[in-house]
Specification:
This protein is about 35% helix and about 15% strand. By secondary structure, the protein is α/β, with parallel strands linked by helices. Helix 8 (about 270-290) packs across helix 10 (about 325-345) and helix 8 (about 270-290) packs across helix 14. The structure holds 2 iron/2 sulfur/5 carbonyl/2 water inorganic cluster (HC1) and iron/sulfur cluster. One of its GO terms (molecular function) is NADH dehydrogenase (ubiquinone) activity.
């Protein structure tokens, strides 16, 4: 242990602890911008400078370890002046038009500048800094050079967590900026669109393409019947932006809010998650029983970030993906067929909007393979953050809204559908139904809880009616890469592998609300989904009465010709 003094308080911490972390143990907060524990500890912003007695230069707290007897001042006149100067210098290279920035009110630079009382800048503004002209506004991920503060968090997240290294430093001296690596443009890079660089950007340097105005245009179109689906993970996080407790941000309030916005039918992606289990589960049992899984597992296909990753990094393995479309796409396909037929309207009349915790879902909905007869299954995807923005635009306060039921039939779901939004959830839901199909009776719904928790790459083995099933659950693309390399080396063998691109699964998705305190919230959000599952009267996808009705009245059976046409794809686009 090391004993030292911070702002007059004696602190004892393990050797190797940084000054920043040591200060936290004494409840002393040192301001910082670029620091991300374990991921970005490079003192790029120099906002965390403190004064250390005996040192001539100021010391950055995030990457310097404590020393025995060290005496640190975090708020001495020198520390205050240095911090203020460093923030002013960053602001001089930042587009400070906060009124038109999506991160206003949720921006770490804005918060620090306000806290420090910076009301004007003593330095000349150095804008614009764009190196390659205008950034494309059609790609679902948008980088604004003039807001980027070169903290390098995006570089590190994409590199260390997602193993894709899409970002790099470009330019020199005062013209240094962050750009797509290897002189590529973003749409030609291998970006998986996981959005993790967005959720870890402290400012508005990165964001999703804004589609909110297209949503308002559709809502105002009298020729459209607007149908909205809400992804499982959205319900675990949307309330954060309104200061609601997780149990207050209910789907009932969400339904009320979406109706106030003008959506005619409020449905639930969970319905389609149950449907996915029927299709993907049947496909898995088919592959397993046919003995087609001896060397390679079947991979889940519902996460579009993962599918993009596999196609760009290991294209030779694309055929191992389940052919099932994702729940988002199955939903759209069913809305424009069965539901349109029920209403007695042409499919073109239906405008299908998705609220997703994800940026890659925007790209998924635009794939030519995600359409029937040239008609896209889903017309528009909004992230959870965009949902928050449209609710705010209409001055809707969810805390004041009543609880309303989603509409039927596509709003009916089970607990198995809810848990799709957390890592391990798709696997668990599939195993519940696979066990039923193989044994003829329902297992304990918590029989496969072993897949819920653990590291980002975990495995479990079960026996279903005497058949051994080897499973792996992965979240985070760096972990996905490790798993595939192990598979390729023949070190591991699995039958069924669930992969989610974002750490923690969709609850940690790149479209979710951003914590200005840099908290990783996927753990508590995932727990919320498991609590919702436990509270559901039905916890098996095969018992969803409206999924049963869909098969009875329209599709026939899982993997029927009609189901193949509407709900499956070859992933070739
Ligand atoms: Fe997901 Fe899925 S769980 S991919 O994370 O399979 O985005 O929530 O909607 O489609 O259901 C996301 C979440 C979501 C799909 C489902
Ligand atoms: Fe990297 Fe994901 Fe950002 Fe793309 S969206 S640059 S893959 S972190």
């Amino acid at each position: 242990m090391v004993t030292m003094t911070i702002d007059g308080l004696t602190v004892q911490v393990p050797e190797g602890t940084t000054i920043l972390e040591a200060a936290k143990t004494a409840h002393i907060r040192i301001p910082h911008l670029c620091y991300l524990k374990g991921i970005n500890e490079i003192a790029a912003c120099r906002v965390c400078c403190v004064e250390v007695e005996g040192e001539r230069a100021m010391v950055t707290a995030c990457n310097n370890p404590v020393k025995e007897g060290m005496v640190v001042h975090t708020n001495s006149p020198r520390a205050r002046t240095t911090r203020r100067t460093n923030v002013e210098l960053i602001l001089s290279q930042h587009d400070c038009k906060c009124a038109t920035c999506v991160r206003s009110g949720n921006c770490q630079l804005q918060a620090i500048a306000n806290d420090l009382g910076i009301l004007s800048l003593p330095y000349e503004s150095q804008l614009p800094r764009g190196l390659r002209g205008a950034w494309t506004t059609t790609f679902p991920l948008y980088h604004d050079y003039n807001k980027c503060i070169k903290c390098m968090r995006c570089i590190q997240i994409c590199d260390k967590v997602q193993s894709l290294s899409i970002w790099d430093l470009a330019g020199t001296g005062g013209r240094t900026t962050i750009d797509v690596s290897d002189n590529r443009v973003i749409k030609d890079s291998d970006c998986a669109l996981c959005g993790q660089c967005i959720t870890h950007c402290p400012v508005g340097g990165l964001r999703e393409r804004d589609d909110t105005q297209r949503a308002f245009a559709a809502l105002a179109d009298p020729d459209k019947i607007t149908v909205v689906q809400v992804a499982p993970a959205v319900r675990a996080a949307w309330g954060e932006a309104f200061g609601l407790k997780r149990e207050e941000a209910t789907m009932g309030r969400m339904a009320a809010a979406l109706r106030r916005l003008g959506f005619q039918y409020v449905f639930d992606t969970n319905f389609a998650a149950d449907l996915t289990i029927m299709e993907e589960g049947s496909e898995f049992l088919h592959r397993l029983q046919a003995g087609g899984l001896t060397r390679w597992p079947m991979f889940t296909s519902c996460c579009p970030g993962w599918v993009r990753f596999l196609k760009s990094q290991y294209p030779e393995l694309t055929h191992q993906l389940s052919s099932a479309k994702s729940p988002q796409q199955m939903f759209g396909s069913v809305a424009k067929s069965w539901f349109a037929q029920t209403l007695g309207v042409a499919p073109e009349k239906i405008f299908c909007v998705s609220i997703m915790p994800c940026v890659a879902k925007k790209a998924e909905s635009e794939l030519p393979t995600m359409a029937v007869d040239g008609r896209p299954d889903v017309d528009l995807v909004l992230t959870t953050r965009e949902l928050v923005r449209i609710l705010r635009a209409d001055k809707l306060d969810p805390a004041l809204l009543p609880e309303e039921e989603p509409d039927s039939p596509l709003g009916v779901h089970t607990g198995a559908g809810v848990i799709f939004g957390a890592t391990g959830g798709v696997m668990e839901a599939a195993l519940r139904t696979a066990a039923y199909v193989l044994t003829g009776k329902n297992p304990d719904p918590d029989a496969f809880a072993a897949v819920r928790t653990g590291p980002g790459l975990r495995e479990a083995a079960f026996e279903l009616a005497g058949i051994p099933v080897r499973c792996a659950v992965v979240s985070g693309l760096g972990n996905a890469r490790k798993l595939i390399e192990r598979l390729k080396a023949g070190k591991v063998h699995y039958d069924f592998v669930e992969v989610m691109a974002c750490p923690g699964g969709c609850v940690g998705g790149g479209g979710q609300p951003i914590s200005v305190e840099d908290e990783e919230l996927y753990g508590v959000r995932g727990q919320r989904l498991y609590d919702l599952d436990r509270a559901e009267p039905i916890r098996f996808s095969h018992e969803n009465p409206q999924v049963q009705a869909l098969y009875r009245d329209f599709l026939g059976a899982p993997l029927s010709q009609k189901a193949e046409e509407l709900l499956h794809t070859d992933h070739k686009a």
